[in-house]
Design a protein that fits this description.
globular, alpha+beta, Arc Repressor Mutant, subunit A, single chain, three-stranded antiparallel beta sheet
Length: 280
């Protein structure tokens, strides 16, 4: 019995995406359900052997031209239908509820965090040029961003990073799958001086509260936050997910900013995918 066939049967029977660790755990429990001893390469396969088998299995499905394929999203493997058959799959399962689309401000903030993580709120505001409190709260609530601990600088501000749900939302295997956006990584930001022994006892910057207040309401999901000082941006980052929606796939460009001076738009690095793939 080939390792890739065993992995194929496990993934085909699974009700959810499985990581390499989960697949290996299943393989190690298999000897309990058979009378004869299994070969070591099948009872406790090496991770490298499993990765190779999954890659071969993925190539097999791609070359066969089937209506579904093997995909790795956020480090977990699953069978998904190809986008071309989405209309017929939707006719069977119906339209599943989808979270509200992210606003332009949310996409820009999320792109900055993705490419510069971990970073503080102040660093994100320096890059965007506007306050990001409300947008950051919404991204935290939706689980696309999480707190990553306090920075070892004066004031010990909280840092933020993207989550596994972020990878799943944009269909990425890992952060290395992000499209090239060198400009976002090179934008200079001012950081506070490092902590000294005298600063360790000073109070840390308060954590970002997720509770809305009368003065600072959390924007509704999908609702754009007003940014009166946003500068004009250009599209320099290649989109990595095709948007099939003819109605709401395009974002309106901001007309404000300095004429003649062009900067990279952080939101161009992230484009929300359409739900064209369904789990097979």
């Amino acid at each position: 019995m080939e390792l890739k066939l065993i992995l194929e049967s496990i993934l085909f029977s699974a009700q959810k995406p499985l990581s390499l660790a989960e697949l290996r755990s299943c393989m190690k429990e298999a000897p309990e359900h058979v009378e004869e001893a299994l070969p070591k390469e099948l009872a406790a396969p090496k991770v490298s052997a499993m990765e190779e088998a999954l890659a071969l299995l993925q190539q097999d499905y791609d070359s066969l031209g089937r209506s579904y394929r093997l995909a790795c999203v956020a480090g977990s493997w699953q069978f998904v239908s190809i986008p071309e058959v989405a209309p017929w799959v939707k006719a069977l399962v119906g339209h599943r509820p989808r979270p509200p689309r992210l606003s332009q401000a949310a996409l820009e903030t999320l792109a900055i965090i993705a490419y510069r993580q971990p970073l503080t709120r102040a660093e994100g505001e320096q890059i965007r040029g506007v306050a990001i409190d409300g947008v950051l709260k919404m991204l935290l609530e939706r689980g696309l961003v999480e707190q990553a601990g306090r920075a070892e600088v004066l004031g010990r501000p909280m840092t933020f990073r993207t989550t596994e749900l972020f990878l799943e939302y944009f269909g990425l295997k890992d952060l290395d799958d992000l499209p090239a956006a060198d400009e976002l990584r090179r934008i200079p930001v001012e950081t506070p001086p490092p902590l000294t022994s005298e600063d360790e006892e000073s109070p840390a910057e308060p954590e970002l509260s997720l509770t809305a207040t009368d003065d600072e309401p959390i924007p509704h999901q999908g609702e754009a936050q007003e940014d009166p000082e946003e500068s004009e941006d250009t599209d320099e980052v290649e989109e990595f997910v095709d948007d099939d929606d003819d109605d709401d796939g395009d974002w309106e460009e901001d007309d404000e900013g300095d004429a003649g001076e062009e900067e990279e738009d952080p939101s161009d690095a992230l484009v929300e995918p359409e739900s064209s793939e369904e789990k097979a």
